[in-house]
Write a structure and sequence with these properties.
heterodimer, A: mainly alpha, 16 helices, globular, B: mainly alpha, Four Helix Bundle (Hemerythrin (Met), subunit A), 6 helices, 68% helix
Chain lengths: 402, 173
């Protein structure tokens, strides 16, 4: 391997050789290289957020038929830098009666929960933070620490609206975790391992082709987990005055903001890893750096979709969100798992095209059931009772309700 | 003292301290937070024993669901952030003595066990722990019966929760 085709392991080996040559023990050398790798990954993620915020503001602007930031720097690229500087120099106002420890921990855990996910994502065939044997489950375990951060923030703010927003947010996050985790059983069944690199390497056919309905359910649940539109009830300025982060100012609010955008990008990364084949592509096995390029392209497409959803769809009400989750996503995720378990195990393992077609047919069945379910729900949902008055009755002030 | 020894000592001290603070801190909300720290310490101990699946599931289930539920329950209690009366009642020295005796008894009893001072054997590099775990949970001569009994217990809890949750709607009140 040389530097051009595989830079990260090359540099890692060079650094390890250098440190071992200075006489450090091999355990300490690995420890130091892990720390340096973690620092670089976290810094790169945070710097990426600057770009992501600009990208989102431009995209939302274009969706809304306006330009987006375009004054500060070429194409408004330095707008995020200006916002960052503003947030840095703002005063940290702590509300009276706030519980200090949860109040301070909220933003920290929120960002930490998102950054820890980056440690297990496979960027190329050879470059990962760490190759955990339970990588997929680790992602969602640290996501649950993010839920904890929301409660801590809402509680520590000593504010009714913050608490209410935090309750709602955590109820939503826990509810939407359920179809997300159930439907993840499908790629795990297809790949036979929880290790993320195994999951990528098992995708000779992308799992979005083999399992489109689980991919759809996973995507919807992930967007709800992040708390983005159309599921951003918890940050609705018009409803509960921006929810659990109302009492935060300055860099603490900046941390929540960063966590929100980074989480949206992170779920795009996770979706690309699990369903779009991650770093796989032509010549990605021989030239690992190409794998990183493919990964970025796929993630950008998914992220574009997420931003498009944000700019297009109206916000859902809390009862609509609960309905969507419990009456729609959860039963169909369970149904998907059962159908996939049956369909995949009765097929002999050797045919590829036949397997693809049979699994697609199974998905079509589930999709038909979903569409039927949606139609039934639309027909049977409660509608508001509208009383109409004819024009001459209005003109003659006749009392219709008598 | 290998680094793993040092890490274990630090984690053990933090976990025990957090567990002690759960019962001695004056505000209930802080007890919940110390409990989360203690559960995280247990997850780290699992990870150090090479039981990675259990460490992750500990975080996912205990911290992600049970601790949040405990916090919800605490938040719905009245007077949760007040300092409510003295921490101990009059005869507190008796249970303290009992606890210390029990702890020493358990430690002495465990030290008679052969595995007390053997080092952790390293797992073979391709040990497929999760597949073995899955097989252990579902094979008839392994642990399938406790697994199914636990599922029935959870089903009972779920039915109880649904019953309590729909009480108003059934007009029983």
């Amino acid at each position: 391997m040389n530097f051009l085709s595989d830079p990260v392991p090359f540099l890692t080996d060079w650094l390890n050789g250098l440190l071992a040559g200075w006489g450090l023990s091999i355990g300490l050398v690995h420890f130091i290289s892990y720390i340096i790798g973690g620092g670089i990954l976290a810094t790169a993620a945070m710097l990426l957020v600057l770009f992501l915020i600009w990208l989102e503001r431009k995209l939302i602007g274009r969706i809304q038929d306006r330009l987006g930031p375009n004054r500060v720097g070429p194409f408004g690229l330095f707008q995020t830098l200006a916002d960052m500087l503003k947030i840095f120099i703002k005063e940290h106002i702590t509300p009276e009666g706030a519980d200090r420890v949860p109040y301070e921990l909220g933003p920290v855990l929120s960002v930490a929960a998102v950054l820890m996910v980056w440690a297990v994502l496979p960027f190329t065939r050879t470059t990962m933070g760490t190759d955990l044997s339970v990588g997929l489950l680790f992602i969602f375990a640290v996501g649950s620490i993010g839920e904890l951060a929301v409660i801590l923030a809402g509680w520590g703010s000593n504010n009714k609206y913050a608490l209410l927003g935090a309750f709602r947010a955590v109820a939503l996050l826990i509810s939407y975790s359920i179809p997300m985790l159930i439907v993840l059983l499908v790629p795990v069944m297809l790949a036979g391992s929880l290790r993320l690199n195994d999951l990528v390497q098992a995708q000779n056919v992308w799992y979005i082709v083999l399992a489109p309905v689980p991919a759809l359910i996973f995507f919807i649940s992930s967007v709800a987990e992040v708390g983005r539109s159309p599921f951003d009830l918890t940050e609705a300025e018009s409803e509960i005055v921006s929810g659990f982060n109302i009492e935060y100012s300055g860099l603490k609010f900046g941390m929540f903001y960063v966590a929100d955008f980074l989480h949206a990008f992170t779920i795009s990364l996770i979706f690309s890893t699990i369903f779009l084949g991650g770093w796989r592509g032509p010549a990605a096995e021989q030239i690992p750096i190409l794998g990183f390029v493919y990964y970025l392209v796929k993630t950008s497409v998914v992220y574009f979709l997420v931003v498009l959803m944000r700019g297009t769809l109206p916000r859902l009400r809390i009862d609509q969100m609960n309905n969507l989750n419990w009456k729609f996503l959860t039963p169909f995720s369970l149904l998907s798992v059962i159908v996939f378990a049956l369909a995949d195990k009765i097929l002999p393992n050797s045919l590829t095209l036949g397997r693809v077609l049979v699994l697609l047919a199974a998905n079509a069945l589930i999709l038909a059931a979903m569409v039927g379910g949606m139609n039934w729900f639309s027909a049977h949902r409660r509608r508001p009772v509208v009383v109409t008055r004819r024009r001459h009755e209005i003109a003659s002030h006749k009392d219709v309700s008598a | 003292m290998t680094p793993m020894h040092i890490v274990f000592l630090v984690v053990a001290v933090v976990t025990l301290f957090a567990a002690g603070m759960v019962v001695t801190t004056r505000r209930m909300m802080h007890s919940a937070l110390w409990l989360i720290l203690a559960l995280m310490g247990v997850a780290v101990v699992f990870a150090m024993l090479d039981a990675s699946f259990f460490a992750v599931v500990q975080v996912l289930v205990y911290i992600g669901a049970i601790a949040i539920l405990i916090i919800f329950a605490i938040m719905l209690t009245r007077g949760v952030m007040e300092i409510s009366g003295p921490q101990v009642n009059k005869g507190w020295w008796l249970p303290a003595v009992g606890v210390v005796v029990l702890f020493l008894g358990i430690v002495v009893g465990l030290s008679q066990w052969g595995g007390f001072d053997t080092l952790l054997p390293a797992l073979p590099a391709d040990a497929n722990n999760i597949a073995l775990f899955g097989q252990a949970l579902t094979s008839p001569d392994s642990y399938v019966i406790p697994f199914e009994v636990a599922s029935i217990l959870l089903l009972a809890a779920l039915m109880g929760a649904i019953y309590l949750g729909t009480e108003g709607r059934r007009g029983k009140k």
